[in-house]
Amino acid sequence: MTDSLNNGLEIAIIGMAGRFPGADTVDAFWDNLSQGKESITVYSEEELLKRGIDEALLKKPNYVKSAAKLEDVDLFDAEFFGFNAREAEILDPQHRLFLECAWTALENAGYDSQKYPGAIAVFGGAGMNGYLFNVYSQSKNNNSLDPYQLFLASDKDFLTTRVSYKLNLDGPSVNVQTACSTSLVAVHFACQSLLSGECDMALAGGVAISQQVGYLYQEGGIYSPDGHCRAFDAEAKGTVSGNGVGLVVLKRLEDALQEKDNILAVIKGSAINNDGAQKVSYTAPSLDSQAQVIKDAQHIAEVEPESISYVEAHGTGTALGDPIEVSALTQAFRVGTDKTGFCALGSVKTNIGHLDTAAGIASLIKTTLALKNKQIPPSLYFKQPNPQIDFANSPFYISDSLSEWQSNGTPRRAGVSSFGIGGTNVHLVLEEVVNSEQLAVTSEQLPVTSCLLLLSAKTATALETARENLVNHLKQYPELNLADVAYTLQVGRRDFDYRGFVVAKDNEEAIKQLESSFLTHSSTSSSYRPVTFLFSGQGSQYVGMGKELYDTETVFKQEIDNCCDLLQEHLGCDLREIIFAEKETGDPPPSPPY
């Protein structure tokens, strides 16, 4: 294997977005990780009873009142994405969050999908839709919903294609479902799509939102007896259920360099395989298959195992899974080195629990942030190694405290693993951006001049929030080049009706202007128009036409009632009795006296 030059298979990560337990942004996620914070919620009995958990279940000694919850799942800006109230009400929350996260990820990468000339793909997957049971349980919906409409709003098949439709993306749009490894497999397929030329940019990730707020512990199962995940520890007995969503924006490295993108990390290689039947059971992991997928990824990346100094493990903290995973990693690394104790090992599940279909993307985002910050965050609750794991004779040690990530003369490199129930394994090799030829040419080379900072939003309140966010961002990152900020705001953001701007020559002046003299303007011209129902009178009407709309849509009912009330004096009859008359097999209802 070579270990210095790019081989043309590299993929750049140029944007990220995510919402995880205890963190509504990737920056907040990193703060929690670097501080060694666990984001597992322990519920009181009162809270669980309010959520509908049976009191008899709560009295069981093995009921664990813990879960890694996600805040504000019910807050969805339906109008922003063009959904009416009924559509938003029945839409799987996983689809809502995935769509919002896709928009945010593209903005983080500095792109507006309407302005980008290339093809943008979407690869992703979602967990089981528990929300559908809530929709069915509401009797008002059972009588008025079109089953096909409910199917479109709830089925996994439409997760990625809905994003492509709402954001106007014309690259491949593919759902991926491989259980726990779903989102990292989605990243692998996105890389393959980019390398084959099917697309120019790709969104990849996953989402998992469940209703679970506790569980019954079963010895030998996947869930922990006390609501904590102790990956690779002697006391490890399982993990905790979690919720989250994450997406990365990917490009071919050469394209990202040419287009001067902000490259967060580089995917040097990725590989997937399956365990097949050579294992104890369908749900059991396979040592040899895991080792093989790691070796394959390293071979594709053309890097030596010794150059990898961190691995973000699948790390579920189970008695069976942890020893097999470390043995597989050791087997893969031993192909290239006999050294011991040089590679840190961690698991994000100790912080946020097991995110099911979103577990792999959480691991990838964590590792990308670690490379960006040149720090290795701690893996929590590690005191003594699992006696079934021979760490002393392996390349690995547990990263149990925040540490500086030493480069040792080579680029910082990491591995990321994700393994799915059923045996689909995936492994990625990541590298930091260090070489001067990999760094985009920035506007620091341009003469210092005043910059026009533009903001736009769909509403006046949203514009005010955008202004506050920009102020906070400039304060948090004073090293930002203002010309780069101005360029992204002009080219990489959608143009909406409510707009504002300031002119400044540096960050300090920009903050001052934004806080004191932010000039705003609202435009009445817009390509968006509300839906209008027009009954054209060409003989296509029938008795009962519009009855479902009349019964379910408040605005429609108000307008029909208003028109019928106005006409009643002139017609001498109530049109509602005619147009909404019950259908009979006999004579048709009387015609109005026109």
From TrEMBL:
Report keywords, A-Z: Fatty acid metabolism, Lipid metabolism, Multifunctional enzyme, Phosphopantetheine, Phosphoprotein, Transferase
Q: Name one GO biological process term.
A: fatty acid biosynthetic process
Q: Which domain of life is it from?
A: Bacteria
Query: Does Lipid metabolism appear among the keywords?
Result: yes
Domain named Ketosynthase family 3 (KS3): residues: 8-432
Q: What Pfam families does the record tag this protein with?
A: Acyl_transf_1, CurL-like_PKS_C, ketoacyl-synt, Ketoacyl-synt_C
Please list the GO terms describing molecular function. 3-oxoacyl-[acyl-carrier-protein] synthase activity; fatty acid synthase activity
Protein name per UniProt:
Polyketide synthase type I
Source organism per UniProt: Crocosphaera watsonii WH 0003
